Each structure stands twice: as structure tokens, then as C-alpha cells.
UniProtKB/TrEMBL annotation:
PANTHER family assigned to the protein according to its UniProt record, in alphabetical order: BIFUNCTIONAL UDP-N-ACETYLGLUCOSAMINE 2-EPIMERASE_N-ACETYLMANNOSAMINE KINASE, ROK (REPRESSOR, ORF, KINASE) FAMILY
Family: Belongs to the ROK (NagC/XylR) family.
Name of this protein: Putative NBD/HSP70 family sugar kinase
Species for this entry: Nesterenkonia xinjiangensis
InterPro entries associated with the record: ATPase_NBD (IPR043129), ROK (IPR000600), ROK_cs (IPR049874), WH-like_DNA-bd_sf (IPR036388), WH_DNA-bd_sf (IPR036390)
Kinase is among the record's keywords: yes
Pfam families to which the protein is assigned, alphabetical: ROK (PF00480)
One GO MF term: kinase activity
UniProt keywords, alphabetically: Kinase, Transferase
Amino acid sequence: MSSLASPHGALSRGARDARPVLPGHARIHNLALVQRELFHAGAMSRADLARATGLTRVTTSALVGELVDRGTVVERGLRAPSGPGKPGVLVDLDREGLQVISLDLSGVDAYRGALMDLTGKVLAREEEPRRSGESSRQAQEAVLALARRLRGRADRRVLGVGVGSPGVISDEGVVLAAPNIGWEGVPLRDLLQRDLEDPVVVRNDANAAALAEHTLGDADPDLFLVRVGRGVGGALMVRGELVVGRYNAAGEIGHVPVGEGGGPPCACGKRGCLEAWISVPSLTRLLHEADRDGGSAEDVLSEAGTRLGIMLAPIVGALNLSDVVLAGPADLLGGRFLDAAQEALRSHILGRFHTQVRIRLPEHSDDIVLRGGLVMVLESELGIS
């Protein structure tokens, strides 16, 4: 685990802890504070960094020196003169000199991965096809093969590996249950860490997408994200903090039936689950059946979007959210689907207090889980959020 990880281990952010804060914890906090300020504000002198963080110049200089020795911060030359006195030396994160491997395991037809720098620029992409009827072991081997190929393409220091996987994920990176891959109790973090010898972080794909939107996107501090891929999942952030729930299963909305009964059959055995309405395979199948039977694609998209809006209404109403992010294929989820979801949501909540609520597609929808993998590594290794 990185030396910038939480000094209290696997506690979720914001959890109460009665243990004393030791001097080493303050140092970890301050190192993360410096790197977080540089990540969001860009290159600056040590003096400017001290002012921005509220730390003393002596402390800031010592912290920067340690981070330069670690290779995560570099000097960028002299700042442009702005008055009398010697201009300061600019320091910044080594944004191009550090690389991150990110994996998205939520795709319909393939496991996807990317090698990225700290700016979010994709340096290389790889895919591993999903085989029909593949076993749990075959799926694990496919993911390991994908990660190895990306590791082989890295030409700089790899800071870590971030993985967004469907299912319920423990704090230790164990996939407790992921029916869409056939995984149960798979220690994915340890498997990848042993194979690649790099730090690995594993989170639910919807949670990864929410982290990406929070850190790299244009999100409100309070948001609910719906991730639509092979399955359907949700992620909740409150005041900028990811809420995972006591058993790491917050946001598991895919297998909740929506509406007054009936609806398409779901793989879980029930009918009318949200996943049976709006997952990519389900929605694609419903559109194909409508085309075959002379039905209307607009009607299918409108019905599916309406079901999503109905599902979202109690979540938005209970938490008074104003930002709902819909991450998935824009060709399916934009247009009529999005309009119907928005209309249904607003008709099922008290409009007076939710006039500003919006459902929107993120700017980088196709890569949002991959970008989330980058954020996960930034958080675990550098303390950046």
C-alpha cells in the first residue's frame, strides 16, 4: 500500500476514528495535500504552494524535496518574473513521466484497458474479447492477459493499476459477487498485484465512473451516477465523498423491478428489473424485437427511459440531489431515452424543491470507467481526489 494511503487503513473517507493522530499521519496528510494542490492548480513555486496549502515555507520545501526524491514531483524551470527579487522555481507533478494502467471490465463484448499518463491522455489501448459462456477462470485469465499486454507497453514508471469491475467489491479488492462475469469471491486485486508487481486498486465500475466525474469532470459534490453496460449499477456521492454502504453494495439498483409488475424477463429470474429494461444487451434486444414486429424504436426508448426516471425519483427525492449522470452508450441513452427519463423523474418528485435536477450524459462517457481507474490510482498512491 502507498505511504500516502489513509493512516487508518481501510476506513471509508469521513468515517469516525477515535485513535490519536500521530506525527506520521500529519506528514502523510501534508504530502497528499501538496500533490493534490499541484494536480488541480498546476505548476507553481514553492512559495506559492505554501500560500495555497497554508503550510509554512520550510515545511513545504521539505515536502517538495521528498516528493522530488520519490519521483512524483519535478522542477519545471523558473517562473516568469513578476516583480523585484529572484523568480521562484516551478514544481509540478510529473504528469507525463508517470503512467497508470486502467481496466474496464463492464463492457458487453470485451474487457477494455488503457495505458494513461496523469493528464488522462490515453497512450495505448488494448481489448480482450469476452467469450460466450466463459467460465470464471477463463474470465480471470482474459483480464490478466489484458493487463500484461498493457504493462508491456508502458515505457515509464507505472504508478499503479486501477480496475473498474461489475459487482460488489470488498475493501480488499475481492469481487464478492459479479453475476455478469460469473465471479464470486475472486481476489482480483491480489491476482493482478502478484502477476504485475504493481499496486492495484479494484472498485465497482459505477463507483469508478463516479470518481472520474467528480475529480476530472463537471460534477456537483452531490450526485448519483447510473452506469449502463452489460449490466446496470449506480454510485452515490455526497459532499464529494463516495458512499459505498456497510456491505459495499450501495447503488445496486439493477435488479430492482420498476413499475407495476410485468416487463421483460431478467436474468435474475424476476420480471421488469431495471437491468431488463435498460442494460445494453436488453435495450438492444428490445429495439431489435420492435423492428422485427413493426414497432417503434421511439416507443421502446421512451418506455425504457421512463422506467429509469421512475427508479431515480425516490433516490433524488430522498437525498435532494440535482445532478444525475447517465454513463453508457450515447447512441442508446441520448435523445428520446434521456428526454423520457427526465420527464418521468420530474413528474414523480415534488417539483418545487427539485426544479434544478438534471439527468445528463458525461463528456467522456465511453472512457469514464477507464478515467475512474486513473483517479483510483491517483487517490491511493498520491492522495489526490
